[in-house]
């Protein structure tokens, strides 16, 4: 079993091994107007396949990149040549967006042998490591999903937690968005945060120089400084369920493999008129 975070030296040493699948999960917020799929075709880590979080998603909701049903996920990753017995390394851009989301999604569907590449494609490029272009057509493999509902929170669960306060909620958005001083990125979404939640912008989990993840003692300090009790139940949220997975990964590295993600996140909560908010 791989650790949840591997570095570029590790991946370079294992590149091309049988049973190791490399997944490019690069994703950009819509306002950046960048095409991650075309960028993948132009240059990616050798052997990688492209995992589009907007395509491997529930297509029956207006909410962005919500989790698909188990069978749809199994078909999608099977078509990418990923089977239940494979080791999976996921990479993306700066601050592990959205490789951590893909990592969490594999875990939701029962696949534990999955890791995120620390530093992502930017670090791989900086180090002058090999790239290739084009798109592969891998042989389909069988992926058997085993759903872990305990890793996911929906609107009903988040409403219930307002009363019970059983779980601490940690929000990965910027502090300005959290307190309502900055506008939301999606039209029609109110500003503020879920009442009683804590705030830790996801980019604070990384070295500023090379955007690799902080060591465990510094990760722990960041979460505790944000106000969390790391012995209690935790749920991560953000704008649309992507950067929340970065917090879940950081907590996983501290031994908290049980952290859930609120899939709809602020796009759902702030996009309604019947959910309370704080600023």
Structure in a nutshell:
The protein has 279 residues and is an alpha/beta fold. The protein has helices at residues 8-14, 36-42, 70-79, 99-108, 120-126, 155-164, 175-178, 216-225, 244-253, 265-269, and strands at 5-6, 20-24, 49-50, 87-91, 114-117, 152-153, 168-171, 198-199, 234-237, 260-262. The model has no long low-confidence stretch (mean pLDDT 96).
Overview of this protein structure:
The strands form 2 sheets. Strands 1-5-4-2-3 form a 5-stranded parallel beta sheet. Strands 6-10-9-7-8 form a 5-stranded parallel beta sheet. The protein has 2 domains: 143 residues, Rhodanese-like domain (Oxidized Rhodanese, domain 1, 3-Layer(aba) Sandwich); 120 residues, Rhodanese-like domain (Oxidized Rhodanese, domain 1, 3-Layer(aba) Sandwich), CATH 3.40.250. The chain has 279 residues and is α/β, with parallel strands linked by helices. α4 packs across α9. The mean pLDDT is 96. It contains 10 helices and 10 strands.
Indicate the topology.
Blueprint: E1 5-6, H1 8-14, E2 20-24, H2 36-42, E3 49-50, H3 70-79, E4 87-91, H4 99-108, E5 114-117, H5 120-126, E6 152-153, H6 155-164, E7 168-171, H7 175-178, E8 198-199, H8 216-225, E9 234-237, H9 244-253, E10 260-262, H10 265-269
Parallel strand pairs: 1-5, 2-3, 2-4, 4-5, 6-10, 7-8, 7-9, 9-10
């Amino acid at each position: 079993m791989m650790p949840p975070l591997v570095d570029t030296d590790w991946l370079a040493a294992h590149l091309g091994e049988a049973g190791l699948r490399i997944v490019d999960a690069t994703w950009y917020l819509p306002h950046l107007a960048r095409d991650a799929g075309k960028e993948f075709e132009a240059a990616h880590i050798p052997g990688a396949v492209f995992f589009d979080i907007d395509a491997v998603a529930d297509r029956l909701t207006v909410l962005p990149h919500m989790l698909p049903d188990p069978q749809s996920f199994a078909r999608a990753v099977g078509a990418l040549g990923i089977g239940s017995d494979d080791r999976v390394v996921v990479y993306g851009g700066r601050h592990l967006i959205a490789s951590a989301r893909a990592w969490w999604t594999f875990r939701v569907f029962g696949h534990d042998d999955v890791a995120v590449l620390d530093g992502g494609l930017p670090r791989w490029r900086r180090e002058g490591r090999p790239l290739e272009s084009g798109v592969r057509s891998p042989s389909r493999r069988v992926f058997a999903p085993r759903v872990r509902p305990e890793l996911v929170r929906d609107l009903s669960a988040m409403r219930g937690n307002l009363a019970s306060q059983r779980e601490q909620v940690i929000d990965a958005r910027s502090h300005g968005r959290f307190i309502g001083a900055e506008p939301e990125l999606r039209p029609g979404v109110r500003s503020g945060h879920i009442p009683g939640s804590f705030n830790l912008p996801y980019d604070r989990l990384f070295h500023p120089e090379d955007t690799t993840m902080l060591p465990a003692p510094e990760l722990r300090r960041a979460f505790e400084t944000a106000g969390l009790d790391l012995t209690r139940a935790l749920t991560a949220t953000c704008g649309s369920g992507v950067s929340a997975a970065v917090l879940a990964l950081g907590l996983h590295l501290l031994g908290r493999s049980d952290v859930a993600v609120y899939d709809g996140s602020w796009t759902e909560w702030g996009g309604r008129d019947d959910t309370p908010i704080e600023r």
